[in-house]
Structure formats: structure tokens, C-alpha cells
């Protein structure tokens, strides 16, 4: 395990409208990132996980082990900043080859190839309901997670909430994952491979760790995947969005029910223990890169009923017929990346965000009177403000059906978070003084 120091910050040009990590990493896709908040002089305020989080722009770091590297990320309006752990023998400035590899990991994991602004515009033109919600929830991308990690994480999501899923995933990493680095007294581990979860005592150990009936599902699925040909799970990936390090290929014709490869992946995942239609679609979307995959749980079913007039007929319950009808409707409405658009509406409807976000706009005008010209610079910042809990305790004993941390803490003081800018535009006009005469 490395006990080296974090390298110097590097930056990647990236606007918040193309990626907002503070939203993307908290909307029920990934459960392994740890958040750290620092004070104005860089002093650490508190270590936070998804179990306890606050939103402090530009002072918040997100850390996670990805492909054997401990990455630390933060963001402002124009850049995504990143750094990694360097062994003691390295300098604090990463080598060019190391830096290029880290950038490749970031671009792959955050799925940065698609132009998200164009996709939002496309979905907004086709769907008034999406247009109404999207302005306050820009920058939500579908992650390209490791397929095995996504599979186990969403098996853990059954009858669970985000906080408890994150806690379970962390326990898996601590007890079965490879230790990668220790920073500021905290050990960071990689996600365990299937073979690490096939021991005879795994199921009983996971039960003792609080996994309940999911312990058997994880153990049986690990055994089944381990007994398949190497790379079997990754072979189900969308050829256009393959596993890390694999070159993309065409993926076939889009149909109302999705591409053939997606349907095949969905059905094969259903053969695994603990995998139903929703879990299969979550894995297909966030682990295998099938953008048309639309996970439909009771939460999404409520959105379909409320905003898209489903459930008006005799089929008022979520069953296979209504599940397929909702997913096909969204694929027809939003196209090949329907799962991306669905995730924006899912996030907008979570109490964690929807009850506390409010759109704001700030306009700054600067006038410079120069020798020959008058320059007027107008800067417009679209933003969201967020009410957060100073201390938020999640009741771990309460189980909820959806992947939605909806429990409201009581008796706790709240405070306003700082504003997080979502988009920024600057317009500069110059007028010649000679024309004024």
C-alpha cells in the first residue's frame, strides 16, 4: 500500500454544464466516492462520505480508487481539477505519461465523449417536462463504471437507500478489496474482484457485516461470474462504450425496445442471483454503457404517472407490462441515450435535491473607459443554491424501496450552502469614442 503524498493539482477544461461532479456523484450511480471538505486556508474541516455530505463549491474534494489509482477531484465553473497519490520516490508533479493515463481514466469514467449540452438541448426540444426540470440540473452524466462493481453495488440497492448502499460497498472494499493508499490516516481500497468473494465463509461474513439476504446474492453471483470465461461480463458491454482500454466499435440499429446487444445483456444479467429487471437495467446503463437502458422502479413509475399520464388505464401498478411500456415510451421520446435523460428527471425528483434547489442568476457589468474605446463586459452566472444540513444523521434502520435517501432528519440545524455556478457566459462590447462624437 502506498503511503506517498498527493501530487500537485492538474486541471482539465470542463464546464459545469458538461459535468457537475457534486450532483453526478450523489444521484445514486456511484457509491464509493468519499468527500472531503476543506476550509478557506486548506485546513480540513471534516471527512465526509456519501453517508454524510455537504456541498461546498471549490473547497470540496471527492476521492476514490479507480483502476488502481487513488484520484482526488474538485471542480469550479471552468475546470475539473485532479491529483493522485504519488509513491515516496516520485516527485509531486506527475510524469507526462502518468498524467495522460489519469486523464484517460477520468474521461472514461465520467463518460466525457458525448456533448451533454447538445443532448440536453435535444431532449428539451422533444419533451417540455424535461425542459422545465433540466435548467436546474445541468451536468448530470451517466458514469462508465466497472461492470462488476456496478453489478454488486446494485444488488446491494434492493430495498435500500443511497447511504446504506454506500456503507455496504465501503465494507466490501475494506474487507475484501486491495489496499491502494493511505492518506491523512484513512486507508483507501480498490473494489474486490469476483474471485475475492467466492470463499466458503463470504456469505456468513457478509451477513455479520449487515448485508442481510443480499449476502447470499453477492456470494452466488461472484461464484457464477468467476466460473464463466474471463471477460464474460465485459463482453456484454455496448461496443460503442466498451470497458476501459478497449477500442469502440459500432453497436447496431436502434429499435423501440433497444438495440439487440442491449436486450441480450439485459436477459443474461437476469440469470444472476439478486438481479431483477431494474437491477439489470441499472447495470446495463451504468456498467455496460447501454444508453437506452431505462431502469424503472416505483420512483420512476410515479414520475411516469404524474408527468407522462401513465396509469390512467386499468394497469395502475408497476408490473412487467407497465415496466416495458414506460421504458419504451422514454426510448421513443429521448432516443438512444434515454437512460441519461431519465437520470436527470430521477435526480430532480429526489428529495435530497428537489426540495432544496432553487435557480438563481447573477449579472456583473464592468465598464472600462480606455484611451480610445469604451469596453462593457457583462458576465451572467446561472447557479443553484442549496440548503444543506450542518450535520445530517441518516436512520440506518429504516429501509425504503427506492434508491433514494428520503429520510428527513429532525432536530438538526440547517444552514445555507454557498452558491454553485452551473453555467457562465461573458459578453464584451467595445465602442470607439470617435463614433460617439
TrEMBL record:
Record carries keyword Lipid biosynthesis: no
Cross-referenced InterPro entries: DNA_glycosylase, HhH-GPD_domain, HhH_base_excis_C, OGG_N, Oxidative_DNA_repair_enzyme
Domain of life: Eukaryota
Keywords assigned by UniProt, alphabetized: DNA damage, DNA repair, Glycosidase, Hydrolase, Lyase, Multifunctional enzyme, Nucleus
Catalysed transformations (reactions): 2'-deoxyribonucleotide-(2'-deoxyribose 5'-phosphate)-2'-deoxyribonucleotide-DNA = a 3'-end 2'-deoxyribonucleotide-(2,3-dehydro-2,3-deoxyribose 5'-phosphate)-DNA + a 5'-end 5'-phospho-2'-deoxyribonucleoside-DNA + H(+)
Single GO molecular function: class I DNA-(apurinic or apyrimidinic site) endonuclease activity
Major place of residence: nucleus
Region ranges (Disordered): 400-437
One GO process term, biological-process aspect: base-excision repair, AP site formation
Compartment(s) of residence: Nucleus
One Pfam assignment: HhH-GPD
Matches recorded under SUPFAM superfamilies: DNA-glycosylase (SSF48150), TATA-box binding protein-like (SSF55945)
GO annotation, cellular component aspect: nucleus
Family per similarity comment: Belongs to the type-1 OGG1 family.
Protein name: DNA-(apurinic or apyrimidinic site) lyase
Organism per entry: Penicillium egyptiacum
